[in-house]
């Protein structure tokens, strides 16, 4: 294995381990589609299309991963989702 291959392999492993957390959004009967979509756009920087797709997945499947990344970056976003009345957790 060349030095270049080994360095590239180490970088790829580091990238994979740094993005190992997810915010999971759960379905509820309280929030409207518009509220969920607008909140995902504001909090998670989703496009309108991404937010709409996530809201439909949550509605039909009961949950959806709405953001992935490092825990320290996801924590404030998850808190904002919870403060907006949505049901979410970091896994």
Automatic annotation (TrEMBL):
Example GO biological process: protein catabolic process
Protein name (Swiss-Prot/TrEMBL): Adaptor protein ClpS core domain-containing protein
Top-level taxon: Bacteria
Domain Adaptor protein ClpS core: 22-83
Pfam assignment, any one: ClpS
Source organism per UniProt: Flavobacterium album
